[in-house]
Design a protein that fits this description.
The chain contains one helix and 22 strands. The chain is mostly beta strands. The strands form five sheets. Strands 1, 14, 15, 16, 17 and 20 form a six-stranded antiparallel beta sheet that branches. A five-stranded antiparallel beta sheet has the order 4-5-7-11-10, with no helix packed on it. It starts with a helix and ends in a 19-residue tail after the last strand. 38% of the residues are buried.
Length: 308
């Protein structure tokens, strides 16, 4: 299957995005909407309809382009990955405004929504960003960069597909389980449900050994960090929870609250990063947003091979 075909296979739907420190975030738009590359922010507007385009579906936006130096990896091998964000003049950008304490965030997820990584590359000079990465299994991965170049009106989320060579077997998205997950000895509980078209409150609570964790540490200027991807196109936006450390009212656990609005029914994968005792851990949840209360049909994934 060639690259164009592979990309087309996965362009199946919309993403949900989750509200952050100042309110409720939402993205909606028809499948296949054409982005207005003159728009900044997490999403442009599709065609002449004025419909927002989810973040991460475009490699270019607002005159800025994500340019990877390589597009293939050998699975399981530590590999140097370098890239630039090129500006409207075609040259690598060197000036960026910090976002949540970092000048650039790199998010990686395999097309079956496994293999999540949240990384912070280093600029090594001349606008070139570098980081050593392992893609654990063969398959197609989506790489997202969250940046705000100096001169850009808004924050940009740019995305591109990167391939780990070999025959891949995509596994079904994990089913929505009871509302708790154990990660590295911590139990993270998710309370709340998504209702398409309505604001939904989601509360994630962290416990260890049955006791609430009340001294979560600040991570990226918050007590928790949430990435949400919709199954299918992997449209993306990551935000922070309601409240800020040091604001006099936000407690460092055990609860971290987000507000969410799902624009349509579907399956979503949530990734919560939290830090405690100097280590960042990630809890993952599958959430179904359904209008009828019945099960949501999941889009099938297909294996592929990719070779030089």
């Amino acid at each position: 299957m060639n690259t164009a075909t592979k990309l087309g296979v996965y362009a199946l739907g919309l993403a949900v995005v989750f509200g952050g420190t100042t309110g409720i975030g939402k993205i909606a738009g028809p499948v296949g909407a054409t982005a207005d590359t003159g728009q900044g922010g997490h999403g442009g507007h599709g065609g002449d309809t004025g419909t927002p385009v989810p973040g991460g579906l475009q490699i270019s936006q607002g005159g800025y382009t994500l340019v990877p130096r390589r597009t293939t990896f050998n699975p399981g091998e530590l590999t140097d990955f370098r890239f630039t964000i090129n500006g409207p003049d075609g040259r690598p950008v060197t000036g960026f405004k910090p976002l949540h304490g970092k000048r650039l965030h790199l998010i990686i997820a395999r097309r079956d929504l496994s293999g999540f990584q949240h990384l912070h590359p280093t600029e090594v000079g001349g606008g070139v960003w570098a980081i050593a990465i392992v893609l654990p299994k063969a398959g197609t991965y989506r790489f997202f960069t969250d940046v705000q170049p100096e001169g850009a009106k808004e924050q940009l989320t740019l995305g591109t597909d990167i391939f780990a060579d070999g025959r891949s077997e995509y596994t079904p998205l994990p089913k929505q389980e009871p509302v708790s997950q154990v990660v590295d000895g911590y139990e993270v509980t998710l309370a709340g449900q998504l209702v398409p078209g309505k604001s939904s409150k989601l509360t994630l609570s962290v416990r260890r050994n049955g006791e609430p964790v009340t001294n979560l540490e600040e991570y990226l200027e918050a007590y928790g960090h949430l990435v949400a991807l919709r199954q299918g196109d992997l449209a993306y936006l990551h935000v922070h929870p309601d409240g800020d450390p040091g604001d006099g009212k936000t407690k460092p656990g055990p609860d971290i609250t987000f507000y969410a609005e799902a624009p349509s029914a579907g399956a979503y994968r949530l990734y919560l990063d939290f830090q405690h005792e100097g280590k960042v851990r990630t809890a993952e949840f599958t959430v179904q947003a359904a209008t009828s209360g019945g099960p949501v049909q999941q889009a099938p994934e297909e294996g592929h091979s990719h070779s030089h």
